[in-house]
Amino acid sequence: MRILKAGLIYFLLVFGTGFALAFIRIPFLVPAFGVRAAELMETPVMRAVIVWASRRLAHRNSELSRSSRLGAGLLAFVFLVTAELAVAYALGARSPAAYVASRDPVSGSVYLASLLFFAWAPAVWNTRPGSNNSPKTTPLRGAA
Question: Does pTM top 0.90 for this prediction?
Fold first, then answer.
């Protein structure tokens, strides 16, 4: 149950951010730069969100093993792909195959790489106390 909750929260954070960014990308960036450039401009922002959200998942669920965190990431990946296809269908009445075929080959490939990074990211963080990417839990030297 803990893995399901972690995966769901991770999905909601990343999908929610991507959904919100679409309100900037579609009306402002796409007309000015085109679909490919607009999607590529959004990629670094989304990758930063993935890093933040995956670290959050790892640190809030530090009792989960790496493989359990990978499971949460894979579950979030399934939620994300399902939501993406559902939104594409709802907005354009496209089949999943038609939606995938309509993606730009360059930005679509970068997006696929981001999806794989999204699934894998929760498992990469070291959650041991004192590690470089987790909060320090040792007292300051000289503190009494």
Answer: no
| CB-neighbour burial class of residue 109 (10 A; exposed 0-12, middle 13-18, buried 19+) | exposed
Tell me the torsion sign for CA atoms 39, 124, 61, 7: positive
Query: Residue holding tokens 């993935």?
Result: 50
CB contact at 8 A, 11 and 56: no
Q: Report residue 112 as tokens.
A: 């696929």
Distance from C-alpha of 9 to C-alpha of 141, rounded to nearest angstrom:
37
pLDDT, one tens digit for every residue, the chain (144 residues): 999 999 999 999 999 999 999 999 999 999 999 999 999 999 999 999 999 999 999 999 999 999 999 999 999 999 999 999 998 889 887 788 888 899 999 999 999 999 999 999 999 998 876 666 544 444 445 544
Alpha helix (H) residue ranges in 25-126? 30-33, 35-60, 66-92, 96-102, 105-120
Is 139 exposed, middle or buried (CB count within 10 Å of its CB: 0-12, 13-18, 19+)? exposed
Residue with tokens 């965190």: 69
